[in-house]
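Hi everyone, sorry if this is the wrong subforum. Our group has a chain we'd like a structural model of before ordering constructs, and none of us has done structure prediction before. Sequence below.
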Amino acid sequence: MERVTVSKLAVITPSYGPDSELFTELHRSVLRHTSDDTVHHVIVPTADKTVFSRFESPRCRIWTEPELLSGRYARIPGTGLWVNLRRPWPPVRGWVIQQALKIAAAGIVDADVVLLLDSDVVLVRPTDVKSFTSDGKLCLYRVADGVHAGMERHVRWHQVARDLLGLPPVTELPLDDYVSSLNFWDPAVVRAMQQRITEVTGRPWMDAFNAQLHISEFILYGVYVDEIVGATAERPPSNTSICHNRWDRTPLDLAAALAFAERLNPSAIGMMISAKSKTPWDVRLAAVERCDQVAGA
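Answer:
Right subforum, don't worry. Here is the predicted structure as tokens:
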């Protein structure tokens, strides 16, 4: 597969037609807060490429899902499922494919850092590679001891990651959490992680990844960095204040949205109000505007 334009920072966002309005605000913030050589890579279903074609420019590369899946997978029409054309059963869930797409894209982008952003994130401060480094080292989004016994899915994600990476099973809790709506990876590390999965499983990394019923791309990367790379080098510093998040699925009213914006962390370069909250569009925009004002104060 071809490599893409060299730059210090690249941005990757999986999206689809219903989120195009959210993506509009996100992409506007990427253009505003990153350098002219930063390319925003958006990954969309083939059917939605025309919806996103208006964004295409030297600073926005549109990828369709099949381009990154290298012809190995096909969507089952009318469903959120995919099939591996070489092993068509069982089908692969769409949210697993979306994670694999992020890993595939991150592995072919020639940049020092890839910034992974969901469509409901907006950048609110100037952003470059230095935003994610400390003393010249790329940080890792890591919440120490953030996964406890009550977080069964996270524990399972850790176990699956360890299986794919050839590490001993989980034996003690708590565990570190690496999941965030805004994350940052080293493409060279991603490629090494892909190779590790292939070597451990004896299968192409994407097939091994997509064969899992429960998996987290962020926990997989975090465990790889901390336990594989970290076995022979110092673990990277943590950065968990990079995005101001509101995960709650209940809608915000204007007063609550503005109060949320007022709490923007001085070191946050992004903000996120979950799209699943169904917060009214005008309220979301008011929160974004207020975060911009707080960030610029």
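For your construct planning: The mean pLDDT is 94. The first helix runs from residue 20 to 33.
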